[in-house]
Design goal:
The protein is an alpha+beta fold. The chain is 18% helix and 34% strand. α1 packs across α10. The longest helix is centred in the last third of the chain and has 19 residues.
Length: 619
Amino acid sequence: MPSLLWCSLVLSVASARPTLEELVAVVSVRSAVVSPDGATLAYVTDKSGALELWTLRLDGKSAPQQRTSQKQEVSGVAWSPDSKTLVFEMDEGGNERTDLFQLVAAGGTPTRLTSTTQLAEAGVEFSRTGDRMVFLADPGQPFRFNVNTRVVATGKDTRHTFETINVSHAVWRPDAKQIAATVSPDDQQGEVLLLDLVANTQRKLPPPQHKGMAAVVGYLPDGRLLTQATNALGFLQLATLDTTSGRYTFVGPGDWDLDDVDLAHNGAVLLSRNVHGVSEVLLLDRVEATPQLLWRGGLVGDVSLSADGKTATFVRETAKEPDGIFLWRAAGGASNPLVPVVPPDAGTLDLAALQPFSVETFVSFDGTKVDGFLMAPSHAGLGTPPPAVVMVHGGPNGQTRDAFSATAHVLSQAGFLVVSPNYRGSTGYGRAFEDLNNHDWGGGDLKDITSVVEQLAKAGRLDARRVGIMGGSYGGYMTLRAITAVPGVFAAAVDSYGMPDLVADYQITESRFGTWYVTEMGTPTTHPELFRDRSPIHGMDKVVTPLLVLQGANDTNVPKEESDLVVAALKKRKATVDYAVYPNEGHGFTRRENRLDAARRTVAWMLRHLGKTAAAPKR
């Protein structure tokens, strides 16, 4: 039976069971920002099939309006201080070379602010008077961003920094005489860069903890700088910075990582934090105030405050409920109910038929505690105990959360147990845990994954002969590492844009990720044996697992030539391998038709090789 037909039949056995098409058609929402006057919401959604810009008047009467129809990926939305103009980023073709566009909020069509094919511009913030913008651009070296400003009236740009490592989070001081930004080689350690635009001077202030992070949020009304900084426990916490003395003062809760923070002009702070994989949304009238809990549950992002701090919005999702945008108004206090101004859009999907994520803690091979997110199969049609698919998150500085995953649901609805461990190296559990796989990619982290699988098999919760593995980016690397380092453990694999040869990956992406590699693995020069040992390309002769490879043609993060290496090596051995390349995608698939095709191929591959009649893998 053809595998894609098999997939369709399995997902439509019961009329109440969600179909693959329904699951992938669930609408995604991101980049939500409320206007400074609190009257309008701007956001990006793929409701039309691609990630386009939409706006909504928050008067309770208006309907959302689609403002772009570019069929490209829109992101990075910024409002002018008078709430009349929007600036956004657009990535044409998925190559991450974003240009800036402008749109009048009241109507009209977008106009280009930049037109560069080799450069990227991003991270816009207007000055309080609206006459200038600060933004990030990489004219000197791709993906090495530096601070630039533009005079809005004339379009004249000025480059202010010439850093050799990445600059991010650039913000204006209210008087527009100073800009603060973060300088970081790896997004794990970083310092504050202060640009005095009057004296034309620059200075750097180190983070409060050695090799820690100080990520800029914005200026408080009294002139202090608000940051997200690494505290003594290794978590990201709010901290104020006296820019004269360089002294940090930690404020707010610090026992879990902050995810997202927004600062109102009046000093109010809205934040989401990651409590054991679940989001909490907190509002502080001022940084020293007692936090008010607005929401707990699922995954929250894109927290946004109006200028006066009286209107808050954020994007919220759970494993059983897709993205929605929720509104909170100050009238009524913290107990004021949240309003779903852009409700979750699941189309015809019956959300009640979906399985939730459960979180369990496992003790790994060396005693390290590792959380695993589990989604049970929706039926026992593939046997008891069921086959399982391990979904490995990317990063490695990433984390599986209680969030909606169409892929997880597709597999669950097909009859698989879905297992997604937060292996060592994952974020959200403190800096010490995040650093555990530094210079050990595909070592202890892979053992964490196999340890979770072994414990579930021993408990009779999965069929050890029928376990698949899949992931994207670093998750793709871990998939390749698994089928080469522990051949026979996994009976099917799907690698999405993973790195097979760490030496080649370093050389191809050094201009972008070289300093990050130093932290994570060193370099091929400093650690040649480690790079060779942990590169899956050198173990292709050991592969007994059928492999499906998925790749975006325009990927600049893990370029297509890396996946080509894997496929060529396996075809040379006449191993079981299939390959799908998406010509209009980059690092991750954003167009609905491509996500649908990738999901179809993935579940069909797993059904073909892990179905009830699948043979046990070779040991």
